[in-house]
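Support request from a user on the community tier.

User writes: "When I paste my C-alpha cells into the form, the page sometimes reloads and wipes my input. The last time it worked, I copied everything first. Here is what I submitted, just in case something in the input itself triggers the reload:"
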C-alpha cells in the first residue's frame, strides 16, 4: 500500500513538472504598466490646518487625485512664487497683476501628473472654465511691461501659477484662487483663461484637437486686393497673418484685435497688393494651432 502511494505521488510530481515546462502556444499574460510607478514616489502633501478643502484635483491624467485646503496650498514652499503678469482682454485693454501663489506645474507634480496627461481644465465655482493643452501650461510665457505698446521691451519669463493673492489695476483678492498664465506675445489675450474662484482642476488624457483653419473672402479692385478673414469660432481664436509668404507667429499682424461682441469695428479687411502671398493661422487655448492657409493674391 505504501509503495502504491509513493508511485502515485511520483506520477503527480512528474505531471506537474511537465506542465510547467510546456513551451507551446500557451498564452502568457502581458505585464501591465504601473501608471503610479511612471511618476515616481508619491510625495507627502502638507498637513491641513483644519480648514475645508477648496480645490479638487482629479482626472485620469493624475496618479494621486486629491482635495486640498488653502492652508495646504500655502505650505507648498518649494512651489511658492511671487511675480507680475501682463494681461490683455478681448476689448482690448491691458493690465498688470502682482500675484502670490503656487507654481501650477509643481502643484500637478505633487498629485502625480502622468506622461499621458494632455489637457488641463480649470473650473470656477460658478461653472466658468478654461482648458489648456499641457504644452500651454509648460511652455515659455512672458510678462510684457509695455504690452499696451505692442512691445517686447523688458519682457520677463513667468510661469503658470495658481494664485491665492493678487493685486491689479482695478482688482485685488486675498484667499480666493485664480490661475494666471503669461503671454506668448504682447497681443496674446490671456485674461479669458484666467479663472476666478477656482475650485477644480481636471487633468485628462484625451486627444488634443486642432483649431479649424481660417476661411476667407477676396475682393479685387485694380491692383489692390481686400481680404476678409472668417472663422467658425472667431471669438475663441486669434488670427495672425503675413503678406510675404512666411509662416505667421503670434508676433505677426493680428487680424481680430477685439472680440466681435465688443469692438467689431476694429476687425477690418486686409489690404494687399496683387501678387502678395497671404498666410494665416489660428491660435487659441485648449487646442493646437490650426494649419496655415496660404493664398496667392
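"...and here is what came back when it finally went through:"
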Amino acid at each position: 500500500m505504501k509503495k502504491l502511494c509513493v508511485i502515485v505521488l511520483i506520477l503527480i510530481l512528474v505531471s506537474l513538472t511537465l506542465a510547467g515546462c510546456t513551451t507551446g502556444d500557451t498564452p502568457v499574460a502581458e505585464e501591465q504598466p504601473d501608471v503610479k510607478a511612471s511618476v515616481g514616489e508619491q510625495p507627502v502633501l502638507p498637513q491641513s490646518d483644519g480648514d475645508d478643502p477648496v480645490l479638487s484635483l482629479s482626472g485620469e491624467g493624475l496618479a494621486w487625485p486629491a482635495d486640498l485646503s488653502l492652508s495646504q496650498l500655502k505650505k507648498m514652499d518649494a512651489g511658492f512664487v511671487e511675480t507680475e503678469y501682463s494681461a490683455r482682454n478681448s476689448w482690448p485693454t491691458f493690465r498688470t497683476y502682482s500675484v502670490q501663489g503656487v507654481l501650477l506645474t509643481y502643484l500637478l507634480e505633487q498629485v502625480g501628473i502622468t506622461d499621458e496627461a494632455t489637457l488641463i481644465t480649470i473650473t470656477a465655482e460658478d461653472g466658468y472654465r478654461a482648458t489648456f493643452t499641457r504644452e500651454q501650461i509648460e511652455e515659455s510665457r512672458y510678462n510684457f511691461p509695455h504690452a499696451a505698446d505692442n512691445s517686447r521691451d523688458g519682457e520677463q519669463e513667468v510661469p503658470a501659477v495658481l494664485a491665492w493673492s493678487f493685486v491689479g489695476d482695478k482688482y485685488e483678492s486675498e484667499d480666493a484662487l485664480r490661475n494666471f498664465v503669461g503671454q506668448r506675445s504682447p497681443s496674446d489675450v490671456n485674461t479669458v483663461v484666467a479663472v476666478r474662484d477656482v475650485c477644480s482642476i481636471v487633468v485628462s488624457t484625451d486627444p488634443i484637437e486642432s483649431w479649424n483653419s481660417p476661411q476667407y473672402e477676396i475682393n479685387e479692385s485694380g491692383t489692390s486686393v481686400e481680404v476678409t478673414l472668417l472663422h467658425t469660432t472667431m471669438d475663441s481664436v486669434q488670427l495672425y497673418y503675413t503678406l510675404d509668404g512666411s509662416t505667421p507667429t503670434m508676433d505677426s499682424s493680428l487680424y481680430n484685435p477685439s472680440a466681435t461682441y465688443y469692438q467689431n469695428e476694429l476687425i477690418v479687411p486686409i489690404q494687399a497688393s496683387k501678387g502678395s502671398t497671404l498666410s494665416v493661422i489660428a491660435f487659441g487655448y485648449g487646442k493646437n494651432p490650426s494649419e496655415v492657409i496660404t493664398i496667392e493674391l
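Agent notes: The reload is a front-end session timeout and is unrelated to the input. The domain at 36-204 is CATH 3.90.420.10 (Sulfite Oxidase; Chain A, domain 2). The first helix runs from residue 2 to 21. Escalated to web team.
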